[in-house]
Amino acid sequence: MTAPAALHPRLNSVPPTAEEAAALERTWRDPPGLFAWLAAINHKAIGKRFIVTAFGFFVAGGLLAAAMRLQLARPDNRLIGPDLYNQIFTMHGTTMMFLFAVPVMQAMSVYLVPLMIGSRSVAFPRMNAYAYWVYLFGGLMLFVAFALNIGPDAGWFSYVPLSGPDYSPGKRIDFWAQMITFTELSGLLEAVILVTTVFKLRAPGMTLNRIPLFVWGMLVTAFMVMFAMPAVMLASTALITDRLVGTHFYNPAEGGDVILWQHLFWFFGHPEVYLIFIPGLGFMSSIIPTFARRPIFGYSAMVLALIATAFLAFGLWVHHMFATNLPELGKSFFTAVSMMIAIPSAVQIFCWLATLWTGKLVFRTPLLFTLAFFFVLVLGGMTGLILASVPLDLQVHDTYFVVAHLHYVLIGGAVFPLFGAFYYWFPKITGRMMSERLGRWNFWLFLIGFNVTFFPMHLLGLQGMPRRVYTYGAEMGWGGLNALASIGALTIAVSMLLFVVNVWRSLRHGEPAGDNPWGAGTLEWSIASPPPACNFAAIPVVAGRDPLWEPGGIGGHVAGLSVDSRETLMTTVLDAEPETRESFPEPNIWPFAGAVATSVFFIGSIFTPWAVVWGSVPVGIALTVWFWPRKRENRAHLVLEHAP
Amino acid sequence: MSARREDEKGRPAALGAVAAAGRPEAAIDVRDLPSFDFSHRSLMWWGTAGLMAIEGTVFALAIVMYFYLRSHSDTWPMSTPPPGLLWGTLNTAILAISAWPNQLAKRAAERLDRRGVQIWLTICLALGVLFLIVRAFEFTALNVRWDSDAYGSIVWMLLALHTTHLVTDTWDTAVLDVLFFTGPLEGKRYVDVNENAIYWDFVVLSWLPIYAVIYLAPRV
Fold it and tell me: What's the ipTM?
């Protein structure tokens, strides 16, 4: 592809000619075929796989939840035994938190962020592919283990000493700990990719105070990932060495401490809630202006609120540990911060309300999902304030009240906006609209089913029903509310089935979407649906926050990038002024091979510590071959080279 | 603000500002922009900075773990003598010295001086290998096993974490060094050398607090 341009590189003009656009398509497309499929690195191909995989794990986690609700539907049920039940609730929590909620947000941004900021790619596209494969293999490993009856069974936060070598012999917890290594490696790499993409690959003129709020949200999230996820990786590494090579980090008999696990886990675990929640806020801020037909109210306040939330999120972790023997004065600090974080959240909620109040609302499915956020999340936030105060927390700690709270927060704060986002961007990704009718059924059944499932759990918790019990006696009087919750779960299952049907049908028979079906204002709607392989045949020059809504919002285009090499433009961090142009790498099988080698390394180390030694050799080889420059690519780059 | 500084670097003035953005269908021609550049103008710099933030967090948390465990014990080290000072201190000296050829390799890369990169990168590599050999002796002088007690566990964890960084960065240096002898080269590879040098500085600088924790903290 690069050969014909050897002497006189062909550069794009403004507007690009049909010939240039065709050349760009050839250059940026991942070639067909199975081998090439494994070697693909285009951010849209990887993003789509990422999204589909994450939703696949969502369905798997949902089926596990349905199994639990079946078991709990009536007292003294013998459908699922205690050992399997322990695995199921652990798998459900682990899947939803580590394999769905955080990755799906990164997956959406891998696809969307370059389109929203006017770039042709994410930064480090091969690392992006590697991160995807590592995530996929880690998730598959966990489910294979579960299918072989070695699924983890100590809860999604795997407290020691229960998860330690004395109380959890066998390999179950080791698989859990390595699942953490897989997913957090993937998540950390994606964070680096996103930060670099947002800082360096924005279209000219898209200064930091013009980037879409969703991109701000993902930027803030990526920074949080970089400081939160190392804690859980370190914690789970210490756990697995305790289990496999006899270290004593969590063994009180030899000077270790079990509360250390809780500190490390929640230092990650509480920010993690916001890793899920902040992208949800980003979806809200994208959807609301479009369907309120006006720019967002209070952009700067929204950005500051996001950043404030990120900082405060690191001062909350002990509120998961109020039932431990920590100094009371320390706990009151964490109570204060837990109350304080309501302030930036409220700022955003009021900004959205102002946007909605002063807009002309168009009630399509994406807006319905975001409106549900207000109702559900606010309820979850209120119970959060209850749980943030030590005496009340002690009363309901480890009961179904906590289960109700966390589902209201996570489903209300992230999953409803995520579904809204799915309906909103599906036309851009596939070129077809989703059915509005099925969408409404999906929405209402989900909303009603959700409340019927989880509202009774508040009451069950107040009545003292502990979480994670596989059954309960009829004399406890919890049967009625549990049956109601199970009916709600069934309703959610039906709504999800409708969602899958809607996706399936719309892919084939959906109405053609056109470039901008919602009349939205951000850059991704300025190009075809689905977008061409290079995203922008000529990179736009941005002159406003909602470039498609403002006269002169796109103030020109960039000429002079090669059409035969994967060249894209780098701009300055703050003001997005053109700085360098760089040729990006071509598709390459080695990120996939590297991920396979990495999986062998991680899974091997569950069975022998020596895998850390011999397993690193193939990883080193794969990563080196991946890096080593190819002569053909090198020649093409030299033609375009221009030293600073 | 940053834009102005970059203009002083001698950029074509027309490209410095997006003043043209106001005019409809104005085209910015970027064909004369450099195809690579150093420091915060390169993607690699941001990627490396991100990794350093992550790994710096890991080191910081491991040190917090050390003192957390220490606060839960009446004696520290719990039942063994503190680590011998010889090898660790020798290694600190080697690391400190390695910062110098490392800096020269970095500067050679910025001058696009292939010969200079070859020379200084080879010297860095030799020091890296020497360091790894001494590191093996360091492990033998810790006077405690990882499975003796919690003190032993965290000391081994800290040293193993840092050693992982040494091994990977020594390998990176070796790969780059070979590439600078064999080719194929392009401008971007000088940026890689530059970033590799920055990463080595990180490995050196992060060693100093870890050295203090492993070798000095048990003595005070």
Answer: 0.94
